[in-house]
Amino acid sequence: MPLWGVVVCGIRIALSRVNYVVIRVRMTAELVAAVKRIARAGLTYAAAAQVTTPHTLTPDQQAGKAVYTRYCTQCHGARGDGNGEAAPFTTPRPRDFRQGLFKFRSTPPGALPLVSDLDRTIRSGLYATSMPPFPGLDPRARLDVIAYIQTFSRRWRTDTPATPIAPTPEPTPTRESVARGETLFAKCALCHGNGSGNGTMANALVDSWGYRIRPADLTRGRTKSAVEGKDLYLRIMTGLNGTPMPGWVGEIASDQAWDIVHYVESLGPWKQSTVRLGADSLTQAASTGVTGPMRANAITIPVQMIGSVAGYRFEPDSITIRVGDAVRFVSDSGGPHNVTFWPDSIPGGAESQLQRNMMNTSGPLTGPMLVKAGDATIVSFAHATPGVYKFYCMPHVARGMRGKIVVQ
After folding, report:
1. How buried is 107 (Cβ within 10 angstroms: 0-12 exposed, 13-18 middle, 19+ buried)?
2. Are 365 and 351 spatial neighbours (Cβ–Cβ below 8 Å)?
């Protein structure tokens, strides 16, 4: 390419990025203005949403087009094809509305979403994506823009509305439920791996539009649309249209879906995490041979396993917990890493209980080898004997990668 062509190309890229910044600033300014209008009216976000609901209004597609042009075209494009000015700079890509495929729904796999499903996405946005929440957009405007979005796909005129899937009442979360969920999660491990999205297929996945897509990291305590257990239940049963994530309704029973939910919640700081709730009904799995309630306010402490030119270490390398808490070791970089406890450093008689409390052990008091960044393993200290538990990373113990856990 001649020099002038390189210069022109560089200018175009720079202008595109400037346009994107301008778009985001404009959207932010408009959102702030909308919020101020609500505030002047003496309404909070929640109160404003309760003034009326989309179900009591009649949509106006032309009014919806104006809302769409103002707030949505920058990313979703004027034709609803997901190719707006800002689209190249977003991850994941904006939704292409022309196929009528929507990920986050309460309806069966392959079905169109309910208006209420789309309304929730608009109001709440999609966490950790470029799709912002629009809490200041009044219910009428949301209904109008949904009606306009429906003009992009003929499915809205030809498909019969599907009956939504309603989550069944949640069973009491128990250690037994978590154990069953872990077994069922084997169906998910090909993509989700140990829950962090590191499955063997994770790097080869694409969506229906040909874009690369990553499995959700379920250890973070929330996903794009899931915050609570009932949200996870719906994602399991409905699947995500347009992605490799299938819906399991009809394939697994509702109680099995809840078992998977309880296992996923045990992997991270979910709002309804069984580890954090630790209800009195939580009991040690029968396989441990120990029964009795778990501590009600048990927590999970993260420990990073780090390897770099600066050295190899656990961070933090010394923590103090209480009986019933758990420690989640996460490989940050520089693997492979593992966790092995010194048998002669822990309280006498505690070895067998600790062995039962470790995930996927590969030997006496030895956890699995964590190869990739994001791999993790959890060590529970349920029914543990108070005292000092010293541990090390077997591949890097000579580099000083050691630590200790004080159980009180």
Report:
1. buried
2. yes
Helix (H) or strand (E) run with residue 4 in it: helix 3-40
Nearest to 216 by CA among 109, 103, 105: 103
Q: Is the separation of the CB atoms in 374 and 197 below 8 Å?
A: yes
- Residue 163 lies inside a defined structural domain of this protein: no
Q: Domain containing 73: what range? A: 3-158
CATH of residue 320's domain is 2.60.40.420
Is beta strand 376-380 parallel, antiparallel or unpaired with respect to 326-331? antiparallel
Q: Given this model, what pLDDT does residue 375 score? A: 83
At 169, phi and psi to the nearest 5?
A: -55, 135
Residue 328: φ, ψ to 5°: -110, 110
- pTM of the predicted protein model: 0.60
Q: Tell me if 47 is assigned to some domain.
A: yes
Cα 384–275–285 angle (5° rounding)?
Answer: 60
pLDDT tens string 43-91: 333 333 333 344 567 899 999 999 999 999 999 999 999 999 999 999 8
CA distance 246 to 237: 8
Compute the C-alpha angle 236/367/183, nearest 5°. 25
Reduce the DSSP state of residue 189 to 3 states and report it: helix
Instruction: State the CATH number of the domain containing residue 208.
Output: 1.10.760.10
Length of the chain, please?
408
Helical residues (DSSP H) of 204-316, grouped into ranges = 229-238, 254-266, 274-277
In 10 A of CB 135, how many CB atoms?
A: 18
Say if residue 64 is in the same domain as residue 147.
yes
Pair 143, 204 in one domain? no
pLDDT (mean) for 154-173 = 93
Dist CA 264 CA 258 (whole Å): 10
CB 171 within 8 A of CB 353: no
Half-sphere exposure of 341 (CA within 13 A, CB side): 25
Q: Say which CATH number the domain at 16 has.
A: 1.10.760
pLDDT of residue 196: 87
Which two tokens mark 231? 């949200």
Do 16 and 145 share a structural domain? Answer: yes
